[in-house]
Amino acid sequence: MKYCRFETEAGPQYGKIADFAGNLWIERLLPPFEEDPLSTKPTKAFTGAFEPVPLLSAKLLAPVVPSKIVCIGRNYREHAAELGNEPPKEPLVFLKAPSSVIAPEEPIQIPSQSQRVDFEGELAIVIGRRASKIGTDEPVAFYIRGYTIVNDVTARDLQKSDGQWWRAKGFDSFCPIGPIVTDEIDPEAGITVETRLNGELRQQGNTRDFIFPIDVLLRHITAAMTLYPGDVIPTGTPAGVSPMQPGDSVEVAIDGIGVLRNPVL
Ligand code: MG
Hints:
It is built from three helices and 18 strands. It is mainly beta. The chain binds magnesium ion.
């Protein structure tokens, strides 16, 4: 299933996406997965008939409302090398603040405290069931609702100087998510992740090149921390990270999920 979260007159709603003759439409409404605790417009029960709308004309919101964003760093060898790091011996894990989440097309804001803000295009896992201490013989697919795209925006200079990455990864607007969630793709089979800056290809990686595969990541995280439905796990970025400037437009594209585009302010 593919779904999105989008704005309606009745507030945010979740919608099931269907393909009609090659075009994606929001076909019908779904019961809410997670509520946004910060929304000024709580989800109301939708009354009346829902007329399908083309996905392209909907005002999309971030498709998930995570209680936490648990990120994987340096999960592609070439990216570790480009920043002068050795490939990690066990998964490198850090947190990104839920308050940094923004929707597709919402602007990434360059903070005055940083001189270098990079994009990091990433495939992200969306958790579907409460997951704690996943056993070695247990299939992790049971806990996965689907996949989406995250741009793990990073203040590269503060990442080095702060030590802790709370600001470097956590400024407001540093976590674009979207455009949709799908369970119809298989990262183990190999999925291409591409990032374009102002239309120019800057990153092209394949999930076949993960240092740590998804099952290892989820077992490692849940050995320490319970994951809740809606939690998001960005799986690391391929080589090619580079800075963005105000006025830029950044797009992360994954076949089967779509294009996550954000302007830079
Ligand atoms: Mg990253």
